[in-house]
Design brief:
Elements: H1 13-27, H2 39-46, H3 50-62, E1 66-69, E2 73-76, H4 81-105, H5 110-122
Antiparallel strand pairs: 1-2
Length: about 120
Amino acid sequence: MNIIINTSSMVPIYEQIMDDIKSQIASGKLKSGEALPSVRALSAELKISALTVKKAYDKLEAEGYTSTVHGKGSYVTGVNAEMIADQQRREIENEFERTINKAKQYGITSEEITEMINLILEDE
């Protein structure tokens, strides 16, 4: 499985794993019924603790993205890609809202915020 971990990120590693798996489900790279790597295999591949991978898998299962069959492994459930995309949009909107509120606390105007966003988008 192609998961990239950024150890210098402020985002916990288990959340990075979850986000990557959710993105792969949303994009169709991971399909309903497809097996995820075992906890041990993924922890060895990523060179991280098995407990970190287990936490990510447990949370994915709690959110309905996967199901675990004891002794067999974790599998992608029949989640709706549109539902995942909507959830991701809501997460991004929440991040924008937090950032905009912080900018306003610093006295930055709406026009300046818009200009900053446009400059960032132009750089891509």
